[in-house]
Amino acid sequence: MKTTTLLRSALSFAAALGATALVSQAATQPFDFKDPKGVNNVQFKLDAPLESITGTATGISGNILFDAASPGATTGRIVLDTASFTVGNPVMADHLKGANWLDVAKYPTITFEATKVANTRTQGAQVLADVSGKLTVKGVTKDVTVPVTFTHLADKLGARLGDEKLKGDLLVVRTQFQINRNEYDLQPAIASDPQGNVDFYTGLLGLRLVKKTVNFDDPSAYHLYYGDETGSPGSIVTFFYWPGGAGRGRVGTGQVTRLSFSVPADALDFWIQRLERHQLLAKRETRFGEEVVAFADPDGIAIELVAVSEDSRAGWTGAGITSAHAIRGLHTTEITVREAAPTEKIITKEMGYRLVKRDGSRARFEAGAGGSGRYIDVIATHALPTGLGGVGTIHHIAFRVAGDEDELLMQTRLADAGYSVSAVRDRNYFRSIYYRENGGVLFEIATDVPGFPDDEPVGSLGTALKLPVQFERFRKEIEAALPALQPARAFA
């Protein structure tokens, strides 16, 4: 398994709007976007490195001045009520409307003010044009130019509203365009400080930084991978960092809620002393008969070290922590949901896990031969709010398969069961598919191959900035923009 914290890049809009004019056949007519029948809508798609978010918005108002004989003189303003945005997944709806994204409470509208119409041409009853104007999203205003199709339907108002006594024209406006969400402050991040992240996970916890790269869709964001000597499956945790992309998340249902690592059975005293020497509050607990030390990283992500006697995996000792104490890899995946049954169904049926034990609201499942690194813990609770992504939260969990054939079989199995599964994404070091289970948690299935030593020797893993091929020609610019990372600070 692999856990990741992250987020995204492009936002696309497609709008089909009908505006009405109570005066028929006038030269320049004022059209109003009032929509008593609820026909007008904006469809949006957020293209993401892991999954796309799609939905609609219907709270549309505004007006436009249009003359069919002189469409180049068109002016107008369209207002979109951000509270009307809807998506199928309630977890993603909370994300979309929260402070890190649209921040509906503070910014209740998105507006477009048309200032110029150019390149007009006629196709039958339609007028095609390039419309320039001011787009304001989340308080940020940018100049944009979008392709627009106008269809002027003379004396069709009555038919539109179901009242033939009404006289007036109808103007249908269609457009489709894309914006860069970074330009509008739509950029929740997870790790707040990349150097502090390296210091903590490598210097203090003793994991190896096995790969230093960037987000596949946004090279301004570091993507840092930590694990054992070779970055073997079951050892990896990853973090994304966007410069200036602040915004704390909220831990809650529909999330992976803890990083759980395996350590040798006699190592807990060592870790308690090490953590407390560096002013970290470490709490000893027992869960499913296992001794646990619980604490949090600098961003507030919950972490636990679990004493495990039967775990043959070798930990990384290059950071000065001996094999008698070193973290060996991930122990279990802790998922928190409101209702257990839908999540337990996909785990046991489509993914092949089996129930091991229950303890109150927590149930443990295991796969394959079982044991450390092959568990999933499902917690059902109504006591927590819906989780929101941002600093201090875990974005998703990845499960391993050996290779491409196994991944494609899982892709088919999940799709046949009704889950929306992504296409296979090539991540250079593995190939992945993504899907969201019914409790709201994002799952990834990743291949073991080709592995992290694919583009640098094992001895120098994580020392050089590795770029996806599409960004290699911009290396100088990317390296200049990213904050420099130093070797992890040493902790005694």
Cα end-to-end separation: 30 Å
Total number of strands: 27
What gross morphology would you assign? elongated
Helix content: 10-25%
Strand content: 35-45%
Q: Which class of secondary structure composition applies to the elements?
A: mainly beta
Instruction: Going across the biggest sheet, name each strand in turn.
Output: 3-6-7-9-10-11-12-2-4-5-8
Number of helices: 7
Mean pLDDT: 86
- What Rg do the Cα atoms give? 26 Å
Low-confidence stretches: 4-9
Q: Give the biggest sheet.
A: 11 strands, antiparallel
Which oligomeric form is depicted? single chain
Write the layout of secondary structure elements.
Layout: E1 2-5, E2 10-21, E3 29-32, E4 41-47, E5 53-57, E6 60-66, E7 75-81, E8 86-87, H1 90-97, E9 109-123, E10 126-137, E11 140-153, H2 157-161, E12 169-180, H3 194-204, E13 208-214, E14 222-227, E15 236-241, E16 255-264, H4 268-277, E17 283-287, E18 290-296, E19 302-308, E20 329-337, H5 340-350, E21 354-359, E22 362-366, E23 375-380, E24 396-401, H6 404-416, E25 425-426, E26 431-436, E27 442-447, H7 475-481
Parallel strand pairs: 1-15, 16-19, 20-23, 24-27
Antiparallel strand pairs: 1-24, 2-4, 2-12, 3-6, 4-5, 5-8, 6-7, 7-9, 9-10, 10-11, 11-12, 13-14, 14-15, 16-20, 17-18, 18-19, 21-22, 22-23, 25-26, 26-27
